[in-house]
Design a protein that fits this description.
With 180 residues, the protein is of the alpha+beta class. It has two domains: 4-83, no CATH class; 86-180, no CATH class. Helices cover 39% and strands 18% of the residues. It is built from nine helices and six strands. It has helices spanning 4-7, 17-21, 40-44, 71-82, 89-99, 108-115, 123-133, 137-142, 153-161, and strands at residues 11-16, 27-31, 53-59, 116-120, 166-170, 173-177. Strands 2-1-3 form a three-stranded antiparallel sheet. It has a three-stranded antiparallel sheet with strand order 4-6-5, sandwiched between helices. Helix 7 crosses helix 9 (153-161). It is rod-shaped and about 75 Å long. The two termini are 26 Å apart. The relative contact order is 0.13.
Length: 180
Amino acid sequence: MPTLSTAIRPRVWLGCLACYNGGRLTGEWYDADIANLVTPADLHGRETSHEELWVFDHEDFYGVLEGECSPHEAAEIAEALASLSADEAAPFAVWVREWGVHAERNHWVERFQDEYRGFHKSEGDFAAEWAEDTSELEDQKRMQVWPFNAIDWDYAAKELFSGGFHSEEVSGGIYVFDPQ
């Protein structure tokens, strides 16, 4: 499965905070995964008394990173994104906005992967698939005949989603999560 690191590389515009506060904009674009390794001397091309860099702009973070941040924070998020498959990046961004604030950043990826239940056309489709996936093989065969093929899966989904599952509507369907 391809990872983001082969497809999209988040980038940040690192700027010198002392220069910015002095009325000058001094900075460069860097790959986000090395943002925490860039020094003020690297940015200025010489030794300097300036001590702090800041991420003033960014791209290709799928909405996980919003606004300005430290280079360390950008590198951590880029590392998390790089560990995901290309199909996981967009739902990961949704998960971070909804539940990431309640989890330690160094555990985001494992928590997301534990809680993400995939992309589905609707809550009803998820309910039908979940019922099939959690049933025994013999039960699955019976689920293809009446009365199982006549179940109102949208109604079943209301029950299922009131018990802990959560969906986020996106173009063409929903992402489903089971937050712990």
